[in-house]
Amino acid sequence: MNARSVGTSILMAIALFVSFAGTAHAGHSLGVGVHYLRNLGDITDDGAVDLNQNSASLLGSFKSGAGPLKVDGQVEYIFDYIGTGHEMWQPSVWGLFGNTLYGGVGMGIGYTNNEWQTNPFYALRAGVNLPLAAMGLDLYATYNFQSDKELENLTGEDLDSMTFAAILRF
């Protein structure tokens, strides 16, 4: 399966999930937030490529589920992905288990510079949902596993990253 079909599959899954979520007998929430990404590889020390290990983004989320099982569809806008000078759109989908404290797995793929990334990312996520009157605050961390052969050939590093997010849920 190529990156374009993976990206299209993710977008279709999110669209189907959002369209049917309103008819399901499940709790759901919309969220907006910020996301900080830190690449773990030493991608700035090579000299051949001058990339930044830090990126920041805005995040939109639709979470739905029943009991401790949840599905979270997200779309993220990264302002300047790893210092390339290009923004990135990154849809992702997550399977989560738990309520106040939770964990789960997810996958997504980036769209930057008018093309889908070659490889999707796979991730582990752990978080906490804090109630705030009629809203909630969702704080979580992820560990993303992502390979990029071009970057690995230039610097010897991959795109594995640690991320932290805060989402205000309605």
What does this structure look like?
The protein is an alpha+beta fold and 170 residues long. The chain has a single domain (3-169), classed as Beta Barrel (Porin). Helix content is 15%, strand content 54%. It contains two helices and ten strands. The chain has helices at residues 3-21, 149-155; strands at residues 27-39, 54-66, 69-78, 88-98, 101-108, 111-112, 115-116, 121-132, 135-145, 161-169. It has an eight-stranded antiparallel β-barrel. The longest helix has 19 residues, at 3-21.
Could you give the topology of this structure?
Blueprint: H1 3-21, E1 27-39, E2 54-66, E3 69-78, E4 88-98, E5 101-108, E6 111-112, E7 115-116, E8 121-132, E9 135-145, H2 149-155, E10 161-169
Antiparallel strand pairs: 1-2, 1-10, 2-3, 3-4, 4-5, 4-6, 5-8, 6-7, 8-9, 9-10
In short:
With 170 residues, the protein is of the alpha+beta class. It has helices spanning 3-21, 149-155, and strands at residues 27-39, 54-66, 69-78, 88-98, 101-108, 111-112, 115-116, 121-132, 135-145, 161-169.
Low-confidence stretches: 17-25
Instruction: Give the count of helical stretches.
Output: 2
Classified by CATH, the class is Mainly Beta
Number of domains: 1
Q: What would you call the shape?
A: globular
